[in-house]
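Render this sequence as a predicted structure.
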Amino acid sequence: MTPKQQTFCDEYLIDLNATRAAIRAGYSDKAATVTSSKLLTNAKVQAVIQAATRARSERTQITADDVLRDLVTIKDSAMTTTDGRMADAGAALRALELLGKHLRMFTDKCEVTGAAGGAIQARIELGFVKP
């Protein structure tokens, strides 16, 4: 792994934004999106990022379950008050949004079917035209 790739890995772990990480690591601004995509498919880069992510999880001892429990606590406290009004509608809405995303309630799906709801049969032909 090159020093520049290692810098990319270190920068990627800051905010998990590959394009910004590539730019901060010194790659070209114009090609950062393409470069970062290629870097993320590099086996060595993937291994370093996965190892660092595991190490961070072990250090912090924070799990996905912890985050979900905290979101539920925030939602519950933001939605209940003694006088019957919502305490913090913004916090409640954001917590519900994040919980819904976790449950994949808000994914955009497009289902495509063939005749009578069956499978689609497709045939692709590649034809090359001779000059």
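Summary. The radius of gyration is 23 Å. Residues 64-102 form one domain.
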